[in-house]
Every structure is written in C-alpha cells, then in structure tokens.
Design goal:
It is built from eight helices and seven strands; from the N terminus they run βαβαβαβαβαβαααβ. It has 252 residues and is of the alpha/beta class.
Length: 252
Amino acid sequence: MPSTRPFRLDGRTALVTGGGSGIGAQTVRVLGESGARVLVADLEEAAAQQLADEVAGAVPLAMDVTDPASVERALGSIDSLDILVNNAGIGHVGSIEECSLDDWRAVMRVNVEGPFLVTAAALPLLTRSTRPSIVNIGSVAGLVGVKRRFAYCASKGAVVSMTRSLAADYAGRIRVNCVCPGTVDTPFVEAYLEKYHRHEKTEVRKQLDARQPVGRLGRPEEIAHLVLYLCSDEAEFVHGSMMAIDGGWTAL
C-alpha cells in the first residue's frame, strides 16, 4: 500500500543530470529514499554506477549534456519519466576581462545548452506522465550580480529565464520551477578553493561562510530536500517559481 506520508514519490521515475556528485548525488539519495526510481545521469560513469549501487532502485545513465547524440541516446533508452532535475553545471571565476571566448562557450554549453538539450529530449516522456515536474538548478548568481562571476552569472540568469518561459508555455501540463542555491559545501566549492586559493583555503572558506548572512555554507541535503518538495504532490500549486535557498544572501 502506498505511503500516506507527505513528499512521497512512489511509482515515479526521476532523472538527475550531474547526479554523480555534490547536490546532484544528494538529490538522487533524497528522491530515492522518497520512493522514486532515480536515473543517475552523469558524464562520469563510474561515479554514477557507484551511487546507483548505494541507492535502492537507482540506475546509472551515461550522459554528456553537451552532446546531442549522447542526450538522445540516454533519453531514448528509457520508457517513462515523471521528474527531470537539470542539475549538471560548471563554474568560472573572472570578470569579462578575465573570461576568454573559450571560457564563455564552455560555461554556456554545460549550463545553458545542457538543460535545453535534456529538456527538449525529455519532453515527449514528460508529457505522457500524469504528474510531470521539471526542476532546474539555478543559483543566486542568476538573481543578483556576483563579483568576478561574469560567465557564470550570465549562464544562471539564462536558466532562470528558461524556467519562466517553460512555465509559461507548459502551465497546466508540466510544473516547472527553479532552485537558486547560495554557496553550498560541495566538491564544486572544494575544487574552486584548490584551484584559486590553495595556500589560503581556511581563510577563504571563512570568507565564504561570512558571505552567507546565516554564517555558513549550505549543505547539499538542504538543496535536495527543496527539490523533493517541488517534485511532490504537496507542491502542486508551485509553478514558475525561482526559490532562493541561500542563507539570506538575496534578502540583503
């Protein structure tokens, strides 16, 4: 008998891009614990397989979100889909003067073209679902300006606008929302510290903590549980929303 507890996803299939690590991996765990069959879509097949081995009902799915053939092949291998979480993304540190054309294109390919390709390929499956939902992982960088994040801000601003446009086009057919995290303690942040602040990690981490008004970085599971809410029946009236989860950053 299905559970009567709130925020259950029993009988539904979810696909999480970039699902092998960070926010994506925690989202896979949370959706799986809530009863969903989760497809762990990732460029790193070993990471996707390892996570799938840990989460009951999870299935690894090789996917390069920047490659149309890879996306079509992956989506063509599944029979049904109820939930799409566009999570895969990369960052870039630098102002416009520090952003080469190659840097710009790399960020846009993953962060903007990726959600476009995956969503377009997933639409035929989602439109056959009785309770379809898309959750795009944006960023506070798509809502406000952040110093030396020129390309990243532009890409996440595009994700916010794509969410609004999809919500307008598919109202009543597919619920579409966007989660906009502040800085979250993930391998993404650790890689940034290693690349740009290797000799001052502790001090810069303190600065990152202080940038969030609540005084700490977000946790991946906090983002994942907001995604779960947006995918659940309890959020049926939530559509076209940009939900900041940023420790108060955008409030100030």
